[in-house]
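[Discussion] Sanity-checking designs against the backbone

I'm trying to build intuition for which residues belong where. Below is a structure token string of 689 positions. I'd appreciate it if someone posts a full sequence so I can compare it with mine line by line.
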């Protein structure tokens, strides 16, 4: 848009532009400082400034490329495409404002000198057409939000009102942009123009604006009348733009600023990695009970939240009719921060009339969480819900001893017996009876440590998995050993349930055992042990090469050290373990193992890979009883049965347990079964020789 030379002949345009911009942006910055920065900085310190180049480069596809938004685009939900168009419309017009308003108001030839005459004309035509496209997209967005509302957008009226305000403001910008071009065209479309005026008129031959301008001239709106209307529309357009700067910090659309920051300061470790507090002996508070107990990144995430509901829509707990809504965890934390934060920032004592947990967030919703990561995978703005939830669990468990009875029983068993399986009659080595497997004490120079895990060693159905693993490794000629009775629990259940002190105690004991035997390489059959030892033990000084069995077994097959021979007639639907797939990005290796077995036909469930559905055992729910609604593992079992497969293939002992129970409760024909991929592979290897 070409700026007018002056404001109705009174003052130069550039004076009005910069005076208004200084006032409005100054007010916006003041609001950002008081309403956002000072409150976010109430949070605990956390180093999110390391590896700045990696952070900045990695944030580009997440912000400019809208990668997280577009990953959810499907035949059922095309909202990401609309958001992508609106986002790039915003970027395009932001560039145009810098060129045509702030630069050209001082130097009218700046944009032409920068882009060239041809480039300027192409860019102007592009903006004109984009205005029309955005109006159509905004109409679709309005209908979708208010008429054909999907479940995840069924929020309270305040959120819907904010949505309609922002849609109307963007629509106003597009309409005013087109009208400005139209009135300018109409003001120049008069007989007797000089050659320079004709060139200027032709230079503004944009498709939509020119068509509207031509129509205006036919109804008598031209010359000085059109010029006056042009100035009114141009300045109104500028006021709406500057009004955005003030509206954004006080609305949910603060995510326009919060989301890029959230991506820049994102977690660089695998998703399944929890931060490790190092001050348990001196901390004033365990976990998080009040806003100042959270990290500044967790508080920032509340502002980054777009209130789109994608996280809640993907949450297995929410789908199974539990209280948990990950979106409301982030939003309610922000609401509490806005309520009590200003007083805390002024040094006043916190009045605990409406505590965070209990008033804004229910305890039950925190215990509903499976820590599966579906919320974080779907979140288009990089909110890290799991950290918040585990922080609040830590406070409930370690400060208030408030937890479900089943969780308390598991933690007591871990403290007294060193494992979560209450009532088991098995020892750590019973599964290996007759297999002639050495311990590290017997063979300290073994190539690798086979970490069996509590479930594989102590739960009857799961014992066949480490037996199969040992058989496979022996056939491949891999030298390995186990810890036997010296193996303890990895501590994962305690950590996810909130008992950080118990986790660190167990982890340190294991690290000391590893150090005593100079352990360098570890292979596990449990994704939870794998994730904890690989990603979280390094925080406590324990760094090792840690592999899940699917990684090493797949390599043994590829190298020819083992070759499945016997045909296994089975149609296998593979289930992605959350802690192997989403949390550690291991999707292909298990599938390649299944495909290597003769006779096995591999099929996919509708919810698979990154969008896989939890079995229901994560976050301690292998032992914590579900609070209400349907059982998550029953829903997942039904999803497996919908494929028509006769076998659900897993690579996690927790998943195996959950499907065993689910099939027994949901499936009626008795034909379906749950198998670990190792069991299928070992059967093919054994029967093939």
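Best answer:
Here's mine. Compare freely.
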């Amino acid at each position: 848009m070409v700026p007018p030379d002056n404001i109705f002949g009174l003052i130069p345009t550039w004076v009005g532009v910069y005076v208004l911009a200084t006032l409005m942006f100054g007010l916006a910055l003041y609001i950002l400082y008081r309403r956002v920065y000072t409150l976010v900085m109430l949070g605990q310190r956390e180093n999110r400034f390391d590896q700045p180049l990696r952070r900045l480069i990695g944030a580009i596809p997440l912000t400019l490329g809208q990668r997280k938004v577009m990953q959810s685009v499907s035949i059922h939900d095309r909202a990401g495409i609309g958001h992508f168009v609106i986002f790039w419309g915003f970027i395009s017009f932001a560039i145009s404002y810098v060129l045509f308003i702030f630069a050209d108001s001082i130097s009218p030839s700046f944009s032409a000198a920068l882009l060239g005459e041809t480039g300027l004309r192409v860019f102007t035509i592009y903006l004109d057409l984009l205005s029309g496209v955005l109006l159509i997209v905004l109409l679709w967005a309005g209908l979708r939000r208010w008429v054909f509302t999907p479940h995840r957008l069924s929020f309270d009226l305040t959120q819907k009102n904010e949505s309609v305000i922002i849609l109307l403001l963007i629509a106003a910008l597009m309409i005013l942009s087109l009208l400005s071009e139209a009135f300018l065209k109409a003001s120049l479309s008069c007989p007797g123009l000089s050659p320079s005026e004709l060139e200027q008129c032709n230079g503004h031959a944009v498709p939509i604006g020119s068509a509207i301008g031509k129509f205006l001239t036919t109804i008598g709106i031209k010359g000085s009348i059109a010029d006056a209307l042009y100035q009114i529309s141009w300045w109104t357009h500028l006021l709406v733009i500057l009004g955005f700067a003030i509206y954004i910090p006080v609305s949910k659309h603060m995510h326009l600023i919060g989301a890029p920051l959230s991506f820049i300061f994102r977690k660089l470790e695998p998703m399944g990695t929890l931060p490790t507090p190092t001050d348990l002996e001196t901390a004033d508070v365990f976990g998080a009970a009040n806003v100042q107990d959270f990290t500044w990144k967790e508080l920032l995430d509340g502002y980054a939240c777009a209130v789109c509901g994608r996280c809640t829509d993907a949450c297995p707990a929410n789908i199974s009719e539990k209280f948990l809504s990950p979106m409301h965890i982030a939003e309610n934390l922000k609401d509490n921060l806005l309520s009590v934060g200003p007083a805390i920032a002024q040094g006043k004592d916190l009045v605990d009339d409406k505590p965070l947990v209990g008033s804004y967030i229910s305890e039950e919703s925190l215990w509903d969480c499976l820590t599966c990561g579906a919320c974080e995978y779907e979140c288009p703005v990089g909110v890290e819900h799991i950290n918040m939830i585990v922080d609040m669990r830590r406070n409930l468990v370690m400060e208030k001893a408030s937890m479900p009875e089943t969780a308390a029983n598991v933690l007591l068993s871990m403290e007294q017996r060193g494992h979560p399986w209450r009532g088991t009659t098995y020892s750590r080595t019973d599964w290996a009876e007759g297999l002639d497997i050495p311990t590290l004490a017997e063979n300290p120079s073994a190539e690798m440590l086979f970490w069996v895990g509590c479930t594989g060693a102590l739960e009857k159905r799961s014992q066949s998995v480490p037996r199969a693993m040992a058989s496979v490794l022996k056939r491949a000629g891999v030298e390995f050993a186990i810890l036997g009775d010296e193996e303890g629990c990895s501590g994962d259940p305690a950590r996810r349930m909130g008992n950080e002190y118990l986790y660190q105690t167990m982890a340190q004991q294991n690290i000391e055992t590893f150090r005593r035997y100079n352990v360098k390489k570890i292979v596990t059959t449990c994704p939870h042990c794998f994730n904890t030892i690989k990603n979280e033990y390094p925080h406590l000084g324990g760094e090792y090469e840690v592999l899940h069995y699917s990684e090493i077994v797949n390599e043994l097959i590829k190298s020819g050290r083992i070759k499945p021979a016997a045909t296994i007639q089975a149609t296998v639907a593979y289930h992605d373990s959350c802690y192997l797939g989403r949390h550690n990005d291991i999707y292909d290796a298990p599938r390649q193992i299944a495909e290597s077995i003769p006779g096995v036909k591999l099929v996919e469930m509708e919810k698979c890979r990154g969008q896989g559905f939890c079995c229901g055992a994560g976050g301690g729910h292998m032992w914590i009883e579900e609070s209400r609604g349907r059982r998550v593992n029953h829903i997942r079992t039904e999803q497996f049965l919908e494929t028509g497969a006769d076998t659900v293939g897993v690579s996690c002992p927790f998943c195996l347990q959950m499907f065993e129970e689910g099939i027994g409760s949901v499936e009626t024909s008795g034909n379906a079964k749950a198998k670990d991929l190792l069991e299928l592979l070992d059967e093919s290897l054994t029967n093939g020789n």
